[in-house]
Design goal:
Elements: H1 22-29, E1 35-36, H2 48-57, H3 70-80, E2 87-90, H4 93-104, E3 110-115, H5 119-127, E4 131-136, H6 146-152, E5 157-163, H7 175-184, E6 190-194, H8 210-214, E7 219-224, E8 237-240, H9 243-250, H10 260-270, H11 273-296, E9 308-312, H12 317-326, E10 329-330, E11 332-333, E12 342-346, H13 350-367
Parallel strand pairs: 1-10, 3-4, 3-5, 5-6, 6-7
Antiparallel strand pairs: 2-8, 7-8, 9-12, 11-12
Bound molecules: pyridoxal-5'-phosphate (PLP).
Pyridoxal-5'-phosphate binds next to helix 4.
């Protein structure tokens, strides 16, 4: 077939393989009651405030959304005590990541990120011809080595990605370490603090990131309505940064990038502190349940501050995935993160967690 040559930088991009949708697995295996513990979604679902707001908005779907997200912007700015022009909204925080690389990476520029971490940093960097530089996490607990991150920064570096809590390890960077790191990072490098799981953090030493932005550091904090707010299907996330950075990012944003339903639901969800508390409680209980259950199988998860658990299953995780799937449980395999015996499992309800534990016990016995 005759067609133009694809841009050469895309040759290094592997299309993202998402966690399998429940319906697809049910269809393929002829099973019912499949549980998906693969994409770090909220098993409680969305806030009922958000559900009601969506129902109220359904008749207005012939109207384009507010491209500026005015009401959501006001509500969030008031909640975070920041200026409205310090916010940018995206079709998921994924989209904000692509705004960042589109705005700041020229072909050949570098972006520093840790490994293993969220694959979208690599994707967004390569998409525009940038070069990712990976810095491994260290030790059994997969901790950040910020000294090594600093060493990886050079004259070509435009961006540094820090994901805290980190996906897939659940590990965090503490405020005192982040403070020192930011002081030493060259001023022309933008630091992206990905805080998709921030609302699950229990550690009081975790930075909010907002004080760096207030002081005018080139920092953008990324947050999302997909995780604790339970609105992943609507695709809405946001970035918080000094207004000059937001202004750069707005140049590459499509005019109607955030749909109207998502805006309505997000505004309502912000009001529902009870849903947030319940979601946090669920995760804290689930962490205990899984830690104890896995210990009985001789397994020790990486200590996490997120809504998922990352554990060395000590068997091939692709085999474990298939065997768990047959038992109706979908998890994420570690091979995509370069750790072929690890699995990442999203904390679920007590019943889901015990189904996972029972299935895993059988699976490990079967594979060994
Ligand atoms: C660390 C991290 N950042 C960002 C995202 C993307 O979130 P969103 O649904 O807002 O695009 C995810 C989703 O899994 C994530 O794990």
């Amino acid at each position: 077939m005759n067609k133009p040559d694809m841009r050469s930088c895309l040759e290094l991009i592997k299309p993202y393989v998402p966690g399998k949708p429940v319906e697809e697995v049910e269809r393929e295996l002829g099973l019912k009651d499949i549980i998906k513990m693969a994409s770090n979604e909220n098993p409680l679902g969305p806030s009922q405030f958000a559900v009601k707001a969506m129902q109220e908005h359904i008749e207005k779907m012939h109207i384009y959304p507010d491209g500026n997200c005015f009401y959501l912007r006001q509500a969030l700015a008031a909640k975070l005590k920041i200026a409205p022009d310090q916010l940018i909204f995206g079709n998921g925080s994924d989209e904000v990541l692509t705004f960042i690389t589109l705005a700041y990476i020229n072909p050949g520029d570098e972006a520093v990120m840790v490994a293993p971490s969220f694959s979208e940093y690599d994707f967004a960097t390569r998409l525009v011809g940038g070069v990712p530089r990976f810095v491994p996490l260290t030790g059994d607990n997969y901790s950040y080595d910020l000294e090594a991150v600093l060493r990886a920064v050079n004259k070509k570096t435009r961006l540094v990605f820090i994901c805290s809590p980190n996906n897939p390890t659940g590990t965090i960077v503490r405020k005192k370490d982040m403070d020192l790191f930011i002081e030493r990072l060259p001023e022309n490098v933008l630091l992206i603090l990905d805080q998709a799981y921030l609302e699950y953090v229990n550690d009081p030493e975790h930075p909010s990131g907002l004080d760096y932005i207030e002081k005018g550091h080139p920092v953008i904090a990324l947050r999302t309505f997909s995780k604790i707010y339970g609105l992943a299907g609507l695709r809405i996330g946001y970035g918080i940064a000094p207004a000059e950075i937001i202004s750069d990012l707005n140049r590459v944003r499509e005019p109607f990038n955030v749909n109207a339903m998502a805006q309505a639901a997000a505004i309502a969800a912000l009001e529902d502190s009870e849903h947030l508390d319940n979601s946090r409680n669920l995760v804290n209980k689930a962490r205990k349940q899984l830690t104890e259950g896995l210990a009985e199988l001789g397994l020790k998860p990486v200590p996490d501050q997120a809504n998922f658990c990352f554990v060395d299953s000590k068997v091939d995780s692709k085999q474990a995935f298939q065997a768990l799937l047959k038992r109706g449980v979908i998890v994420r395999t570690g091979d995509i993160f370069g750790l072929p015996t690890f699995i990442r499992v999203t904390y679920g309800t007590a019943e889901q967690n015990s189904r996972f534990l029972t299935a895993l016990k059988e699976v490990i016995a079967e594979i060994k």
